[in-house]
Amino acid sequence: MAPNFRNSKIYRLVSDFTNLIYIGSTVQELRKRYFNHRAHFKKWIRGHYDYCSAYQIVMFSDFRIELVEAYPCMSLHELHTREQYWKDRTHHCCNKNDAILTENGILRRKNHRRMFQRNQYHEKKNHFCDICGVYINSQPSRITRHEITDTHQANLRIMNQII
Ligand SMILES: [Zn+2]
């Protein structure tokens, strides 16, 4: 099922046993995201899942998930840009340097409102990739060419962190 980025939110994981804070983003309910973090941690312990810096907090039995802000937006890229904004402003953030992937591999910060207006303008003639947050010429061959790029593929792989 395609994620609805209008349900986007930024959250943090905290525990009384550590002053580390994990900043994350999701389109899910926080309660669901909480159980996913816990399930992934248990799988990782048994060697069946990838490491995530959140485990430094999830390992404590009292860990909690808290809403930082609701952030309705249009793409994974926009959501990750906002996530990075909060990481940069959070003391003891345990996942501070996670990069944002963009079409040219450069970390970019964009004005949310301006981006939103520009989106509405471009939407009419172009195909919008809501995974990467970019517009592509709507010719099918151009869309296909975009979907096989490393950036799009890498962004697809991190999708499972937010849905
Ligand atoms: Zn894409």
Q: What ligands does this structure carry?
A: zinc ion
Can you identify the CATH superfamily of the domain at 5-100? Answer: GIY-YIG endonuclease
Shape by Cα distribution:
elongated
Q: Main sheet, how many strands, which sense, barrel?
A: 3 strands, antiparallel
Q: Care to count the β-strands?
A: 5
Quote the CATH topology of the domain at 5-100.
GIY-YIG endonuclease
Low-confidence stretches: 101-113
Level-1 CATH class name of the domain at 5-100: Alpha Beta
Supply Rg.
17 Å
Helix content: 25-40%
Structural class by secondary-structure content: alpha+beta
The CATH architecture classification of the domain at 5-100 is 3-Layer(aba) Sandwich
| Strand residue percentage | 15-25%
What series of H and E elements makes up the topology?
Answer: EEHHEHHEEHH
Mean pLDDT: 81
Lateral arrangement of strands in the main beta sheet: 2-1-3
Taking the alpha carbons of the first and last residues, their distance comes to: 9 Å
Number of helices: 6
List the helices and strands and how they pair.
Elements: E1 9-15, E2 18-26, H1 30-45, H2 55-58, E3 64-70, H3 76-88, H4 112-122, E4 126-129, E5 134-137, H5 140-147, H6 150-158
Antiparallel strand pairs: 1-2, 1-3, 4-5
The chain binds zinc ion (ZN).
